[in-house]
Amino acid sequence: MHMGLLDIDLIISTKNRVTDLLFTLDQVLNVIGLSQKQIYIVDDGSEDGTFSSVKTNYPDIHLFRNEISKGYIYNRNHLMDITSNKLIFSLDDDSHVRSKDDVIEAIDLLSSQTSYGCFSFNPYEQMEEPPTKESLSNNIIEVKSFIGCGHLIKREVVIAVGQYYEPFEFYCEEIDFCIRAFQKGYKTVLKKNLVVHHRIDWNLRQKQTESNLSKGVYG
Q1: Cβ(76)–Cβ(96) under 8 Å?
Q2: Going by C-beta distance under 8 Å and a sequence separation of 6 or more, which residues neighbour residue 168?
Q3: Three-class DSSP category at 174
Q4: Measured in whole angstroms, how far is the alpha carbon of residue 205 from the centre of its chain?
Q5: pLDDT tens readout for residues 13-28
Q6: Is CB count within 10 Å lower at the N or C end of the chain?
């Protein structure tokens, strides 16, 4: 079954990264070419004006807000539940895919075999620009799990597998999901030259004093 850009619903869970989020949305709308109506966002109790900024700049985005943070696994489950398109495209608020062609190529790959259930973009978690597409291998490999900051899931897989396991709260939910998908006959694939740029400043991340395991801590 062939799918294209119009078959995507994009989901993002965000907290206190309004500048990063607005950059990501600019990339998604003006570079990838999704419409605002294809985008679903949960503001997870931000205190930096995220909700009003998105509402003002992008009034047709499906925007929700938790007054008290519930954590990104809860939010992703909620967003997957209320969306309906054939493909779920998930990004972090501080990540983006570099081109429309890259997204289309990922969709085409995912569509090419019924056993392909999930696609992971190749993550570059750094502030610096990733290597050019031409300098990276075009190998397609089967992997154990997709990366949370940039992946595609067929809707049929979510229907077959169910949602993320919320008690994990932070981390392990993706590999758990992929294991359950594999048990249902669905593989996760990655193409090395299809990159997601996760714009992380590791110096700042390492200075965080809050536990990464605490619900609502993003980073």
Answers
A1: no
A2: 73, 176
A3: helix
A4: 19
A5: 999 999 999 999 999 9
A6: N
